[in-house]
Batch of 2 targets.
Target 1
Amino acid sequence: MRRRSWWGWGWEDQAVGGNDLAAIAAAIAKRPGFENLDGEIANPPSPDDLDLRRPRIEAPPSIGAHTSAGNHDRASHSLGKAFRDVVRALAGDVTHPPDLVAYPSTEEHVVELLDWCASANVAAIPYGGGSSVVGGIEPRFADGGDGDFAGVVSIDLTGLDRVLEVDTVSRAARIQGGALGPVLEEQLKAHDYTLRHFPQSFEFSTLGGWLATRSGGHYATVYTHIDDLVESMRVVTPAGISESRRLPGSGAGPSPDRLFLGSEGSLGIITEAWMRVQDRVKFKASVSARFPTLQHAAEACRAIAQSALFPTNCRVLDGGEATSAGVIDGSSLLLVGFESADHPVDTLAQRAVELVTDHGGTVPDGIRSSSTEGAAGAWRNSFIRAPYGRDALTRLGIVVDTFETACTWADFPNLHAEVTAALTKAMDEVCGGGSITCRFTHVYPDGPAPYFTVMAPGRRGSQLAQWDELKAAAGDALLAAGGTITHHHAVGRDHHRWYDRQRPQPFAAALKAAKHALDPAGVLNPGVIVG
Amino acid sequence: MRRRSWWGWGWEDQAVGGNDLAAIAAAIAKRPGFENLDGEIANPPSPDDLDLRRPRIEAPPSIGAHTSAGNHDRASHSLGKAFRDVVRALAGDVTHPPDLVAYPSTEEHVVELLDWCASANVAAIPYGGGSSVVGGIEPRFADGGDGDFAGVVSIDLTGLDRVLEVDTVSRAARIQGGALGPVLEEQLKAHDYTLRHFPQSFEFSTLGGWLATRSGGHYATVYTHIDDLVESMRVVTPAGISESRRLPGSGAGPSPDRLFLGSEGSLGIITEAWMRVQDRVKFKASVSARFPTLQHAAEACRAIAQSALFPTNCRVLDGGEATSAGVIDGSSLLLVGFESADHPVDTLAQRAVELVTDHGGTVPDGIRSSSTEGAAGAWRNSFIRAPYGRDALTRLGIVVDTFETACTWADFPNLHAEVTAALTKAMDEVCGGGSITCRFTHVYPDGPAPYFTVMAPGRRGSQLAQWDELKAAAGDALLAAGGTITHHHAVGRDHHRWYDRQRPQPFAAALKAAKHALDPAGVLNPGVIVG
């Protein structure tokens, strides 16, 4: 059976290795600034060889049958999939493993688990696909330690993975929170439906995880976050089960769902949701436009975002990012894609081309009828493979990471300049050089969601400390320039200090009070969202 | 200077009177079931003649300059604009007037007012345009009485009515919460922008009121609620000012704005918001389609709602409602309108016509290039005038009201049947007959927002008791059939008992805790949202 990597991204068998890894090492060594890499390749230890501390707790008999204290289970639930997780896993540095991993297969199991955790002072970390890149599922509490808990249980929800009901009239489906992307799509396909929520982590993240972290998906406009596809949610909290009505819209008080969306496991565990699903796409049209500069591409993108043409894809790539789409002349790209299950979209694409041309862009390939071809297709494949490449670079001793934000169109040029300058300075000081590239993942009428990729030569053994400095420079620059610490990667533990600075303090106080009402023992994902 | 009606809808000079009123009375008397109306016309007392109880409190000198204890001010801030408000005003039944009306003209005034209210145990009712139809701004507290407060101040925010800043790059504007619809549109027009939020109450409601009640506006799809046009908000709470960042999107924790949207003055007073504004519309296309039954029209409407054509208008009218659009053969109507500031919308309208035809509809007038003409235009004018007509009917002793909901497409046929049956039965028992009609105001891929209008012959002096019974029948039927007690009229005091039944109880507990954190003295709009 195919196995998930305990230390890195995705499938074990997809990790870059052998000749591919050697080729990457050789290519990287030729890049300016990267000449002094030591040529070593870090290899992950086997989880069986990890000297994990002994479990401090034991589950009561009623729960014990659904739990494991095995090394592989505990090691693979200790860390997320961020750069800093991979570095630590490669070093065998797993200092805060969960004491137990629970595998509930029914909602009753979840209720029992939370009851036990609350009564026994055991921290409960909801775990979906484990793809957090912000320390969201890591048992690391106050001051980076264990907190005052008797122990920690990681609650792996992937046993709750069924599409329970499909409403073909309202085009909605009731889906369990632990369903991984491909697992729920497979079940929806039997009804000719799709959720069409495709974050980069699609294969390795769950519906509940998407909802808990306000995941950003396939749609570049309108339905950018998973939030917009929710009809109702069912959440197990220590104070009882919170289930909202199936309503397409409501004006009855503040939205109950919006309290739990983005709560990152701190308020409850999402066991089910009614989701708006989509008919399968029949019509597509896409445009790959080139621009002399990033700002030219951004201006055209703004015009499209403000046009109400509602493209499904609307992605800007700067000159550096464009190379992965096969464009190597330094041009910035704007990839615009339309799709519909109902009607041809060529007219919309034609108007997008007009807007591109008005803003100084060229469209060498014209309008394509499928968005899976051309530069967009090349870029898409590279997008899905990127985290495996990130792991390969990490093993070579490189510091590599991505971070994302959102800001107004008015703020973007300055934010881009300030973030680039701050990172360039930090990389120079800490790593002796490096590169930073930028793309837009989603766009709104009032602003884009810029996404940055940084890559710098690391020093073996100092990668984490180097990363910490780059991350601090990035976070501070983002906030100073008017952005958010995250558009769709979530807050977790790694973003908390910036999150706490950016949110309104009265709101933080309200949220803390709400948390105390729902989780009086404070056992749910401690330190996340409510600090 | 033109004056607002203290007792009824809108402008004093627009109230139906004289020959028009007599004509309505004559026409109504011919309708089956309405033959026994007494022919009397109730006339509102002058506010100067009302024997309002003496103010129980006096504002401290620093605040006193911005307050009034005058009869007209107090009377016109005592009641909203629902049927039951008009009946009571006509009877001079103003038993719970605010002791004072405050007219802050700066945010500092608002802060001072809330500080005073919290320290002196004075209930504070935020008042925008006063168009609530759910008892949202009425000083009626525990058990319909005065509660344990020393007094009540109604805080009229219409002095904070400026567009403070316009960002022409991000297409957003910073607007004060007290700006009435026409006041903010006039200021935006100077920049060639429009908010395009046009609830029926547009002239008599404010931005802050829209945000606090999750108002439903112009757009029938996508941006149905004002929520969807918000970039950031600034809210004065007793625990401090909560200001969210200007972000087009964010995934950093639960949305701060979504906590205050729909809070109806119970958590704070919205003094400013950055709103996404629109370019002025250049292209329009509209379609008026006829169907043999409501369910046929609903099916076509569903197809359009699920097509992602994103019409601006997408309104179903049953045979009864269609008469106000000049269609008197019993046909149900579907009015579909597209608009754009950027591109022609004829292709979209053509596809809508195909979907109409596929579902058994006819389009006798074809596609019109302006949505202000034809049946849609006739209906629109009648829509704006409707509340004045409601006041006229009320004066004639009729029981007349509207209520709205949302449900899934799968639930709609049953909800419509159950609500119609429950109301018909209640009207028969309580009023000896009456009529009920239905339209859709907004539609979603997963369901419509049905809006019902009821009209029954009342008994002079018993109109309120009759209304209570009809309202109870309606609310119970809506909830039993899977709907929400409100899609955009809000909760206020009149909907609270159903709201409390429909929301998840853990969420209610969380909200109560959040309220206590923000308003520890419990002075903000007591009894609303947090019961």
Note: Chain A touches chain B through 98 residues (CB under 8 Å).
Target 2
Amino acid sequence: MVKIIVDAMGGDNAPQAIVEGCINAVEQEKDFNILLVGKESQINKILKDKKYTGTRIKVYNAEEVISNHDEPSKVVKQKKNSSMVVAFNLLKNGYGDLVISCGSTGAILTCSVMILKRLKGINRPALGTLIPTKTGNALLLDSGLNAECKPINYVQFAIMGTYYMRHLLGIKHPKVGLVNIGTEAEKGTETVKEAYELLRESEITFIGNVEGNDVIGGSADIVVCDGFTGNVMLKLLEGTASFFVGELKNIFFKNITTKLSALLVKEGIKSFKAKIDSDSLGGAPVLGIDGLVIKSHGNSNAKTIENVVIKGFNMAKSGFMNDLKKEFEKRRFS
Amino acid sequence: MVKIIVDAMGGDNAPQAIVEGCINAVEQEKDFNILLVGKESQINKILKDKKYTGTRIKVYNAEEVISNHDEPSKVVKQKKNSSMVVAFNLLKNGYGDLVISCGSTGAILTCSVMILKRLKGINRPALGTLIPTKTGNALLLDSGLNAECKPINYVQFAIMGTYYMRHLLGIKHPKVGLVNIGTEAEKGTETVKEAYELLRESEITFIGNVEGNDVIGGSADIVVCDGFTGNVMLKLLEGTASFFVGELKNIFFKNITTKLSALLVKEGIKSFKAKIDSDSLGGAPVLGIDGLVIKSHGNSNAKTIENVVIKGFNMAKSGFMNDLKKEFEKRRFS
């Protein structure tokens, strides 16, 4: 039985959306239990309101909450009783198989590195985010943890991504692309050029440089870059999706004729929105630490949480963590 | 009378699309002439095919063509008779007011710096590109010339952008945002943090950091970043627009009902496509050099060229170049 530890207090819609999402998730799939960490009274009230009477969701009290105003590097020492720190310590001490949190990225990284520690052989953990492409999805990493990277970090990202896509999406030899400003090997910054050479020499399936349009075109299953570039790309995609969906709404809600038109393509629009919906893709694994951690979007709603819990469940039972650990113990990057 | 020098041989659709675009442009607006530089026989044949008999388009022969395989840094010396090098020399020697080329970005930069020279007081020229936003447009610069930048470059980009938006779009105090991975001042790389401080102290209208979604949200009129980030953003936007438009087509062309739906929202879709169409926004000025240069997209079609010529005409008569020159002579960055 997989045990999922959920930080009930992180993110804009906590704890309401988080508790609801967990209830929906346990109704959808068997074989896992949830430990909700946070203010017991608040969580119990929501469980009661939602008439949850099952035994698969348990609550673990933690009175403090980490906010975006807390200095990420200090939370582990200064907010010991916060839902996030308590959740990570529970994972560390074997009370569960993974942690899910919608809290601040910086705080999640600090807890990951300070409480769980880095995997042996990994210099920098990375945040991996699935983004929609023309042909399906691609894993963008690092999507926000390390503003600056060294060439070797890109190779480690590529290997972690390869294991992730293999175990979670069943792609045996995922194609890895390096984000760059041209397809030729000599393009880009010095760091990126060196990363190119290291990736070319590594045993992953490296397809070379990918530009912004190639990323969306779906030419790579895994897209590696520094966390600055990755975060800008991710947020730009979110902004563009919201812009386009807003424009579509304006087009369709203009008058009675256009509203009729909307009815005729309702199904198509619905599946398109699902395709680009960060709620359904939501949930980015923190890769490279000794434990399974998923960061969900700060504005996650109940639907997002439900999806992320199911995703985390699949991740926990996939054997991904063990294989990744073995891989890096074998190679020991300096 | 403004005189526009057009490199007729650069880009994927040269010279056909370029000559056609120029013919359409002179039919649309008065007060400028065009000098087409490239293989005379080919250009004349297109002019004849298109039954152009006017006197506003002249041809200047240049037998060589710069391709993407030419080493950009060597074109000025090794391809003296190429359409691009000849066009830049014509501008340098006073035979026109600006140059337009769809050729390789690297070669355009080399010609700009080596033939026209940098403006006094500018360390690095930058490529500015207008991108669509929720509220209109924003100038993204640098969108591809300098993979790595120093903090002072960002300030120069911001000032050049301010003059550009003021003269070309009539925005008196354009808002400048710094691309970053968080809105707080202490976010990002060391370079970006220093750039933040310099921008804050400068006299431009600095609104602070902008994330990818803010850029599309339209919170800034000018978005400054290094050329790596800018180019990745630009290409990502192009890729996303093409992805979304493709998805819309699939939705509407599915069956007879959805095709009917498409008819009902035809006008809305058309104006939406125009909004996000790089053809109509096409044409990025190379800012920071002693001369007006517009780089148009490598895959520019006749419509793009027509728009870019009109844009260049407006730029030439706006007084932008003189004012920018005075500004930087005054301040002299070290």
Note: Chain A touches chain B through 57 residues (CB under 8 Å).
